[in-house]
Amino acid sequence: MARAAVTQKQREFQGEALPHMDFLYNYALRMTFNAADAEDLVQETFLKAFRFWDSYEKGTNIRAWLFRIMKNAFINRYRKEKKEPETVEYQEVENFYNSVRESAVETSDLQESVFKNLLEDEVAVAIAELPEDFRTVVILCDIEELTYEEVAEFIDCPIGTVRSRLHRGRKLLRARLMEYARKRGYVEEK
């Protein structure tokens, strides 16, 4: 009997939650700027979601529920990392030193390689530098193309707050990217 309940839980979870894995990974990658950290965050999200699957209200917005779990996991991880002193593996330092000594440094920065093809570096940096509340809304609305209602449910706030944050986030981006736009000919010089 218990085995049948677990199997049913697995089927429900796989059918409802797993189809949203790519969406969550894309957002996690934009939050962490690191593929390994994004994968860890998504894995942690799905582990917690499966563990607490019984508390999920069937018929509600599953993506919002998963997003909330992921956002909380990200915040908890960030707080934990801020409390711990930064550690570096000796092997990593040695490898870096050898690569610098022997040749030019070859970048393996995931943020650079991911956003180079999607957005020019200056745009990616400007988005990354936005305050988190604005960055979240800008990414979800303008890049992921979610509706205001979906974003409001994801971040658990009123639609008016989403619109306000989106407006302010876009305004900050506009100010930071004005010179970039002029150089590229998107804005005429006065």
Question: Which features characterize this protein?
Answer:
single chain, 190 residues, mainly alpha, Arc Repressor Mutant, subunit A, 2 domains, 10 helices, 75% helix
Report on this structure.
- This protein has 190 residues and is an all-alpha fold.
- It has two domains: 1-84, RNA polymerase sigma factor, region 2, helix turn helix motif (Rna Polymerase Sigma Factor, Chain: A, Orthogonal Bundle); 110-184, Winged helix-like DNA-binding domain superfamily/Winged helix DNA-binding domain (Arc Repressor Mutant, subunit A), CATH 1.10.10.10.
- Helices cover 75% and strands 0% of the residues.
- It is built from ten helices and no strands.
- It has helices at residues 2-16, 21-32, 35-51, 62-83, 90-102, 110-118, 121-128, 132-143, 148-155, 159-184.
- The longest helix has 26 residues, at 159-184.
- It is globular.
- Residues 100-108 and 111-118 have low confidence and may be disordered.
Number of domains: 2
For this structure, the CATH topology of the largest domain is Rna Polymerase Sigma Factor, Chain: A
**Cα gyration radius (Å):** 20 Å
Uncertain spans, ≥5 residues at pLDDT below 50? 100-108, 111-118
The CATH superfamily label of the largest domain reads: RNA polymerase sigma factor, region 2, helix turn helix motif
| Beta-strand percent range | under 5%
- As a percent range, the share of helical residues equals over 70%
CATH class of the largest domain: Mainly Alpha
What is the number of helices?
A: 10
Bulk shape: globular
Structural class: mainly alpha
Largest sheet: none
CATH architecture of the largest domain: Orthogonal Bundle
